[in-house]
Amino acid sequence: MSSPMKRPYLTTLSLTPENQETPIHFINGTVDDQLFFRRNHFSYPPISNLNYWLPIKGFVLSPQWVSLRDLMKMPSKTVKAVLECAGDKRRYFEPKVFGEQWGKGAISQGYWKGVPLRVLLEQAGIREGAKEVVVEGHDFGKRTDTDSIHSFTRSIPIDKALHQDTIVAYEYNGRPLTFKHGFPLRLIVPQWYAMASVKWIRQIRVIESSFEGPFQTVDYVYYPNKENTEGAFPVTTMNVNSTIQKPLDMAVLDTGKHKIEGIAWTGGGYITKVEISTNNGENWSETKFSSDTENGYGWVKWVYQWLAAKKGEYTILAKATDSTNRVQPDTPFWNRKGYGYNAIEKIKVKIE
C-alpha cells in the first residue's frame, strides 16, 4: 500500500481579513497558487468578470475604457518575480512592533503574464507634467485609525509605471489569476515590496501631484522614531535578504554531513553571493548557487555542504550580497511599523 502524498499548507495569521504565510521552508521553485501567501487589509471584494472594464483616466489626453477581452489581445509579456510583503519577518524585530506577526513566509514567486502598464498609458496619452500613476483596487473597508471607508489604493512614480516590466497581470504560472490573488487583473511591480502590486484593479489614474491616500502616507512608511514622524520615508524597493530553508530552526540532527540550503533575493540588481557561518559569525564560507543568479526578478537557490563532526549546539548564519553591493546587516533597521526586516539570517541546531 502506497503512502499518501505529503504536501505543506499555508500558515494562518488571521481569517478576517485573510492573512496566510507560504510554507517557505518546503518550497523549491515557483510557488503554486494554493501556497502563495495571502495579504489582505479588508475582506475580499464582491467582483465579477462579467462586463469588466478597466478605466484609465486622469491627467491623460484620451481617457480609455478597456475591456478584459481587448486587454488580453494586447501585446503581453511574462515576468518571473518575487513578491514579498513589506512586513515579512516582522516578528523578529526587537523591540517588538504591532501589526501582523509575519514569520519568514510572507514571500512567494512565480511567472506573471500581462500587458505592460506603459502600453495602456501610452494608448491613453500621458500629459506632460504627469508625476504618478494611482492604482485603485476593488477591496475596501474601514481602517482602525479613522471612521471613513477606504479602498486599497496606491501610487507609483511615472518612471516606475513606464518600466517595461511593470505589468497589469491576468495570468499566474500559465493560468488565469485566481480570485484570492487579484482576479481578474492585478498590478505587478517587480523589485518593490508587494503593497505596490495592487490586486483587483478597479481603475488606473494618472495625476500631476503626489498621492496622499492612507496606504501611501500613513502605512508603508518607515518611521525610525517611536514617537513622531521625524526621518520618515516611504517603503519602496525590497532589501537584500535571505532565508535558511533547511535545516529548520532548533532542529536536532545526527553527526555527519548536512545540507544547509535556502533562498536569497533583492530589489536591486541580482544576488552575487551568499555566505554561511556555522559558528555564529567567527568564520564565513561561500555557498554554491543551485539556480541561475540573473533569473529576472526571482530568488536564487543556494546550498552549502556542512560536516557536523562534533556534538553540541550551533548557530548558523546566512548573509546575502547583491550586485549593487548591498549586504544583509547584522541588525535590522528598526522602524515603528516593522517593515523591511533583512538582518542576517540566523538559526540554531543541536547535533547529538
How would you concisely characterize the structure shown here?
Helices cover 6% and strands 39% of the residues.
Write the layout of secondary structure elements.
Blueprint: E1 11-15, E2 18-21, E3 53-58, E4 64-67, H1 68-71, E5 77-84, E6 107-116, H2 117-124, E7 132-142, E8 149-157, H3 158-161, E9 167-172, E10 175-176, E11 186-188, E12 201-207, H4 214-217, E13 221-222, E14 233-234, E15 241-246, E16 251-253, E17 256-265, E18 271-277, E19 285-286, E20 288-289, E21 300-308, E22 312-322, E23 345-351
Parallel strand pairs: 3-12, 16-23
Antiparallel strand pairs: 1-2, 3-4, 5-6, 6-9, 7-8, 7-12, 9-10, 9-11, 13-14, 15-17, 17-21, 18-19, 18-22, 20-21, 22-23
Describe this structure in words.
It contains 4 helices and 23 strands. It is globular and about 70 Å long. It has a 5-stranded mixed sheet with strand order 4-3-12-7-8. Strands 5, 6, 9, 10 and 11 form a 5-stranded antiparallel sheet that branches. Helices cover 6% and strands 39% of the residues. With 352 residues, it is mostly beta strands. It has helices at 68-71, 117-124, 158-161, 214-217, and strands at 11-15, 18-21, 53-58, 64-67, 77-84, 107-116, 132-142, 149-157, 167-172, 175-176, 186-188, 201-207, 221-222, 233-234, 241-246, 251-253, 256-265, 271-277, 285-286, 288-289, 300-308, 312-322, 345-351. The chain folds into 2 domains: 11-219, Alpha-Beta Complex (Sulfite Oxidase, Chain A, domain 2); 241-351, Sandwich (Immunoglobulin-like).
